[in-house]
Amino acid sequence: MAKDWSPSSWHAYPANQQPDWPDPGELDRALKQISSYPPLVFAGEARSLQSSLAKVAAGNAFLLQAGDCAESFEEFSAVNIREKLRVILQMAVVLTYSLGVPVVKVGRMAGQFAKPRSSAFEKIGDLELPSFRGHIVNDPTPTEAARIPNPERLVQAYHQSASTLNLVRAFTKGGFADLTRVHAWTQEFVESSPEGRRYEQLANEIDRALKFMRACGVEVENNHNLSEVDVYTSHEALLLGYEEALTRQDSLTGGWYDCSAHMLWIGERTRELDGAHVEFLRGVGNPIGCKIGPTTPTDYVLELCERLNPAHIPGRLTLISRMGAGKVEAALPAILRAVRDAGHPVVWACDPMHGNTFTSSTGHKTRDFADICAEIDGFVRAHHGEGTWPGGIHVELTGDNVTECLGGADKILDTELADRYQTVCDPRLNARQSLDLAFHVAESLRSSGLA
Ligand code: PEP
Ligand code: CO
């Protein structure tokens, strides 16, 4: 267990990005209520995820971490959850087959609500308003009243996370995730357009593999190895009061686990070495992540590894590189080398979204699918050069047919962004772009000889 740590020891450190809750009494009541509620996940599940991530760290598995930038209280429905899960499962099948290793599936789901902001205020028309910080804090409606942080929202976020997780568990164990069925959806995608047909060969290979298994007498239908999957949950551990309220002592090991999700990560804006976020996460037993942007000094990354994983436990720490397509190949190799030489068994994941955000001519915050692919290619090349394993991707997506990121098979133009721009925060890949990306990742690793 971490030395001199308790679930509340973070209070003695500066905590960035915390909302200005107007009434401390109300906040306290909401947090007390949440600490009396059941945990959302169990310590044993977090440990299973950590052992799967240890395989990723060793180069024998691949991490797919994906979901919303920010979950919404308004877009909360079974269909929404099912469609997101469907895309994640489809991507996982493509990656599993083409990389030939298990794919560890982690959703940005069932708790991904709170958002860090570059500025505490934003300008909307002539109004200057407190920034929207995610539905767990305030409401995006552009009025002064809507932007006041409301602790009741913490309780609502807990309940929405519980229902989302319940449905994820039902879908992944109840037949929806059956391999033959997920593959059939992917075939439909491949056949439905000339761009999709680029992937026909890979889809046909998966078909043949399934036929081969059947011919060998493997029961492909009704085989729980093929009909059930593990999908874990994760979010940015931003609101430390909420995370503390869900941190519980495991009766089996005596260790502390943040039971709000299986995996938690620290964002680019809150990873100060002597800050409250690093202090809090260093003490929980869950697998954890930390974002690494293009200006992060190499020594700083090494110090983060020491603080967050002093015992060098494989799978405990995932470093999520989010450099930007134009910077990744210059910034990443020295860090990869240093972390490798220091003997830190980290998972390296590529977030190709957050370093490639810009404002379109129409005023929308967007990302170009080509930049997203280019950052992945640069990430893969950097690993190839250092002999390290490009262990996974971390992406923002939705199962809906939104128009938030440019390009992809449907060649979304900036004049089309307004058609279905629905995100409450950052622009997400739509279902088609997401599956395209999975095929692209497969091609990128294969062409570097890594798969
Ligand atoms: C995010 O993952 O939504 C996010 C805010 O990322 P970052 O901390 O890397 O900017
Ligand atoms: Co985001």
Automatic annotation (TrEMBL):
Keywords: Transferase
Enzyme Commission number(s) of this protein: 2.5.1.54
Region (Disordered), start-end ranges: 1-25
Lineage: unclassified sequences, metagenomes, ecological metagenomes
GO biological process, alphabetically ordered: aromatic amino acid family biosynthetic process
One MF annotation (Gene Ontology) recorded for this entry: 3-deoxy-7-phosphoheptulonate synthase activity
Keyword presence, Translocase: no
SUPFAM superfamilies: Aldolase
UniProt enzyme class: transferase
Transferase among keywords: yes
Family in the record: Belongs to the class-II DAHP synthase family.
UniProt organism field: freshwater metagenome
Protein known as: 3-deoxy-7-phosphoheptulonate synthase
